Amino acid sequence: MQLIKVDATDSTNAYLKKMMLQKETADFTVVLAQNQYAGRGQMGTRWLSEPGKNLTFSILKKHKNLYARNQFGITMLSSLGVYKALNQFLIPDLHVKWPNDILSGPNKICGILIENMTSGQQVQASVIGIGLNVNQTDFGPLEQVSSLKGIMGRAFDLEVVLQGILTHLQHSFGHLETRSAEEIRNDYESHLFRKDKPSAFRQEDGTLFMGFIRGVSDEGKLRVELENDEEVSFDMKEVQLLY
Fold first, then answer.
1. In the chain, where are the structural domains located?
2. Measured between alpha carbons, how far is 27 from 46 in angstroms, rounded to an integer?
3. pTM of whole model > 0.85?
């Protein structure tokens, strides 16, 4: 593992992808920024972080024989790696909010942005961007957002948390070759936020409906059982889970 620390960058994902274009970059190269001033979340959202208080970093993961149809496995294993690392720090009531936010109770503490590089039918590499709220406690007007310090009432050593996450992610990624897709999906679904609980959703056109999250499809779509017992699957852009 190579760890590259930078004082400031617009996006650690962008920094790492640019570096890959300029030179051969080793598997599990990590870029960590003290200040990421234009971080991105899912669907083009902004990830805002106070400099020096949180962890904003990206990891290069190269793949062998990973077909594009199975790429949601990277999302599941990334989420599980972070989840299990935070669990070791005794962060309470952890869940994965589909597809890959990490919650403590109802509050988001971590976001993950994955960019896969494909060639033909195979995924050659993934750049996995992680933003974890660690010691920041003021999130302005944002609702249902917190940090490790906000939850636990004490400051955390950023280096210790980083090493814990990287260790668990390395272990988690090893499961791509040693565990079946079904085993990985079952593990992921066992930690899924609001699974098998009545939940409210909003569709892309604004329509509201109730349903039960039953899991995810092989392609990573959210499987929801409606009130009429019909099961439907939604892509990330098609539905929003309401609290």
1. 2-189, 198-242
2. 27
3. yes
